[in-house]
């Protein structure tokens, strides 16, 4: 757990260093700040957008509706290790879910191969 915390802190400091470099263009600073903000948010079951991101992942992979339940064995079918996907997102935080959704959206053929 301590190593995970230290690793996450190192990532946060690296992103902050890149963002603060004066040679970086303003448009990239804004993008990196957004990435940083997503990377520090934990999955929150009370946030509808967090569940919508997970449901979008499921829907794109399985072709089902966006209304799948937040808990169940269907999450294991799409590659999560637990019936509660928030457990898998504990260390990855929301950046893990957003990155997965981006990959599935931008590279659907590769996502289907998995």
Care to describe what's here?
The chain has helices spanning 2-20, 26-40, 48-62, 74-77, 85-106, 108-113. The two termini are 29 Å apart. The longest helix is centred in the C-terminal third of the chain and has 22 residues, at 85-106. With 114 residues, it is mainly alpha-helical. Helix content is 71%, strand content 0%.
Large-scale geometry: globular
Straight-line N-to-C gap? 29 Å
Q: What is the CA-atom radius of gyration, in angstroms?
A: 16 Å
Uncertain ranges? none
Structure classification: mainly alpha
Can you summarize the main beta sheet? none
- Helicity, as a percent range: over 70%
N-to-C SSE string, H for helix and E for strand: HHHHHH
Tally the beta strands: 0
Query: Mean pLDDT score, rounded?
Result: 81
| Number of alpha- plus pi-helical segments | 6
- How much strand content do the residues show? under 5%
In short:
This protein has helices spanning 2-20, 26-40, 48-62, 74-77, 85-106, 108-113.
């Amino acid at each position: 757990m301590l190593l995970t915390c230290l690793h996450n802190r190192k990532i946060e400091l690296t992103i902050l260093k890149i963002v603060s470099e004066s040679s970086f263009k303003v448009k990239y600073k804004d993008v990196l700040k957004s990435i940083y903000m997503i990377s520090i948010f934990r999955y929150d079951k009370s946030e509808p957008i967090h569940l919508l991101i997970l449901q979008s992942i499921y829907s794109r992979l399985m072709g089902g509706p966006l209304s799948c339940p937040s808990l169940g064995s269907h999450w294991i079918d799409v590659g999560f290790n637990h019936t509660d996907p928030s457990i898998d997102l504990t260390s990855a935080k929301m950046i893990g879910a957003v990155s997965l959704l981006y990959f599935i959206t931008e590279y659907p053929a590769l996502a289907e191969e998995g």
